[in-house]
Amino acid sequence: MDGNGRWALGRGLPRVMGHRAGIKSVRATAELARELGIQILTLYAFSVENWKRNPREVATLMRLLDEYLRRELPTLMKNEIRLSVLGDITGLPQGVREHLTQVMETTKANGRMTLNLALNYSGRSDILQAAKRISAEVRAGKLKESELTETTFSRFLYTQDQPDPDLLIRTSGEQRISNFLLWQISYTELYLTPTLWPDFGKPDFLKALVDYQQRERRFGA
Ligand code: FPP
């Protein structure tokens, strides 16, 4: 969800107004994904590296997240959406963490769509935490090294049993991965658009999906 800062600065507004405006796109994309029967939507909301930003911007992002969780819970329930987090939530402020835990618990039986929020997330930290837990299980005799396959490894990642993403959309014209789902995107189709995240609405999402439908996926075969 890139381009919030530039969207705001381009209008002579403070950067955080771009994040606020970005919530509208979060709602629109979640709503369309659910309408179209997409089973998993993952939004990269806050990376491990984002802690390096101005503390006031970080605090605003945490507050927006908290507001979003409070306001959207009835919609998540009505639309049968399960909220899940990818990332280390122990590193988030206590209030946000409690709220997230509560929303995850309340929505856990919802089966129509999973909305993953990547928070305090990075692809490398994900792989590292998986490696540490795997080595602990091997040392404890719960897992044999010979049983360690790509499928087993995947189960230790934050995405657990979720399938790899089919499509990765990056907004704002940047052409990099920025530490997102590094393990999981080995054969994911990429869609890069110059549209800034707050301007990314349902028509843009549909355009990306139609583009995806034209792709021929061979997975190296
Ligand atoms: C990147 O744009 C965006 C973020 C770091 C945060 C995304 C957060 C939201 C859309 C709001 C809160 C999220 C939820 C799920 C409620 P940028 O600031 O790097 O933009 P720039 O590259 O133009 O500076």
Distance between the termini: 32 Å
Q: How confident is the prediction overall: mean pLDDT? A: 98
The third-level CATH topology is Undecaprenyl pyrophosphate synthetase
Radius of gyration: 18 Å
Low-confidence stretches: none
Total strands: the figure is 5
CATH homologous superfamily grouping: Decaprenyl diphosphate synthase-like
Q: What ligands can be seen in this structure?
A: farnesyl diphosphate
How much helix, percentage-wise, in residues? Answer: 40-55%
Total count of domains? 1
Provide the CATH architecture: 3-Layer(aba) Sandwich
Strand share of the residues? 5-15%
Q: Which structural class matches the secondary elements?
A: alpha/beta
Q: So how many helices?
A: 7
Largest β-sheet summary: 3 strands, parallel
Q: Report the order of strands and helices.
A: HHEHEHEHHEEH
| CATH class wording | Alpha Beta
Give the overall shape.
globular
Cross-sheet strand order for the largest sheet: 1-3-2
